[in-house]
Amino acid sequence: MSDAETVVDAARKFVSILDDYTASMPRDRKFTMGDRLLARGMLLLETVVEAYYLPRHIKKPKIAEANVHCEIIRQLLRLLFEKGIHISGKTMAVSPIKNNITGRFSMKGWFVSMKSGFVIFGIVVASLLIWGCGSKSSPTGTGGGNTLSAPTLSSPSNGATSQATSPTLMWEAVTGATAYDVRVSTVATFASTISSQTGLAARSASVVGLANSTNYYWEVNATNADSTSAWSSSWHFTTLAASAVSPTMISIPAGTFQMGSTNANLYASPVHSVTLGAFTMSKTLVTQAQYQAVMGLNPSYFDSGSTWPVESVNWYDAAWFCNKLSKLAGLDTVYTYTGVYQGSGYDTLTSVAINYAKNGYRLPTEAEYEYANRAGTTTDYYWGRNYPPTTTADTLAIDSNAVWYYNSPNGTQPVATKKPNAWGLYDMSGNVWEWCNDWYGNYSATSQTNPTGATTGSSRVLRGGSWVNNGGAYVLCAAYRNGDGPEYVSYYYRSGFRVVCGAR
C-alpha cells in the first residue's frame, strides 16, 4: 500500500468513528460542534499548506516542528477531490470559484466547497495530519513519491570571503540520493548560471575559472532512483581580490656571473660564464595561503599556518600554479600542456612546453636561481662565508641566514624569518628545496646567455637546500645542484618553489 493509500485508509477509519459519535448527538449540538471542528481543521490545514506546500522561498514555515510529508498531503487531497470519497453519505466537491461555503482554504487558487453535511471534514484533515503524517520526517523532495531530504551545504561556509577562484564545493550526504547536481551563479535567483554540473556521485564539485572579487551563489540538488529530487538552500561566497595572492616581486638586475663551483661535492662543474637579462623574482617562497588561494587546496604536511612555505608539491603542481597565478593577474601563461592527470597525491601535466617569450609567472631557470641566490657575491654562501664551516662563527652565520636541520630539526619555518640576501630575497638557502624550470643536465664550459638547461631529461632541477639535510651544510651553497622527477613529491616534505616573472 502506498503512503497516500495508507493515510486515506487511516482517515476513513477515523471518519467512521466520528460519524457514529456525531450521529448519536442531538441535531442542534452536532452541527454546533461540527462547525467548531471544521473551523479548527481548516485553520490547521491552511497553516500546514502555507508552511510546507508552497515553495520555501515564498512562505517561511509557521510550524517548523510539525512532521508533515508534503507529497502525501498533495496526493491525498487529489484523491479526495478527484475520486469523490464519501463522508457521512455526502460528497466533497471542488470549485475554482468562491461559493457559499462553510470552510475554505487556499492551495494553488482552489477552493473547497462543503455542504452542511460535511461538518466533520475539519477533524478528518486533522486526523490525516496527525495519523498519516505524524511519523514522517520533513523532506523537501518532490517527484517520485519517495521521501528525500534536501542536501546540507558545508563548504565554503555561507557568506565566506576571500575564497579561491577555483574552489571545491562540498555538502553532506543525503540518505537515498544516487546523484547530485550543482549550479553556481552570480545572481541569487539563478536566472543564469556560470557553472552547472549534473549526475555527480561524490559529495563535492570543483569549480574553475571564477572571477576575482565577485559574489557567487551556489546550491545542490539531490536525486534518488525514483527521480525524486530536493534542492538545498542557496549559499554564497566572495572570491578573493587578485592583489591578495600576488607575490611581492623583487627586481633582479641584468648581469654576468660565474656559474658553478670547483668543489666536487656540489656537482656544479665546470665553472662557466653566464649572462642574464633583468627579471623579477618573488621575495619569498610561495606560502601555503597563496597556494590555497590559487589552487583551492593545501597539500602541505607542515600545515602550521598561512605564512609557512607550501611543500609536498611536485614540479607539475608548481607549473600549474604559475599558470593559474598568471590568469589571475591578467598575464600570458608560460606553460602549455595537452592534459592534466590528477593522481593519488600528485598531478601530472602531459606534453608540457615552456614559452619564455610570455610575460606570465613561471619557475626560475637554474641559472636565474643561482644568480639571484648569490646577489653579487662569489663565496659559497650568499652571506659571505665558504664551505665547510670551520668555526663557531661560521655555524652561527648559517643559523642566522638559513632554516636547516640544526636550527629546525622538526620541519619548515615561516618564510622570511631569517636574514635576506643582498637583493632582499629570503630563504634562498634552506627551508625547502625549490623547483627550477630546467631539466637536470651536464654543464657546458662555454659562455652562455639566458640558458634554459638541457632539452630533455628525467629530472627537473632543485636548488637551495632544505630543513631536513642533517649535517649537510654543503647543500646550502649557492652552486649546489639537485634534481627529482617532475612527478615526484620529495620525501620528508621538503620541496617548494618561488616564482619569477618577465618575458625574455
Provide an overview of this structure.
The protein has three domains: 3-132, no CATH class; 153-243, Immunoglobulins (Immunoglobulin-like); 248-311 and 323-332 and 354-501, paralog of FGE (formylglycine-generating enzyme). Helix content is 23%, strand content 21%. It is built from eight helices and 28 strands. The strands form nine sheets. Strands 6, 8, 9, 11, 12 and 13 form a six-stranded mixed beta sheet that branches. Helix 1 (3-23) packs across helix 3. Mean pLDDT is 78; it is low at 1-8 and 25-139.
The residue ranges in which pLDDT falls below 50 over 5 or more consecutive positions are 1-8, 25-139
Overall average pLDDT = 78
Number of domains: 3
Gross geometry: elongated
Strand content: 15-25%
C-alpha end-to-end distance: 76 Å
In this structure, how is the largest beta sheet organized?
Answer: 6 strands, mixed
**DSSP helix count?**
8
What are the salient characteristics of this protein?
Immunoglobulin-like, paralog of FGE (formylglycine-generating enzyme), 3 domains, six-stranded mixed sheet, 28 strands, disordered N terminus
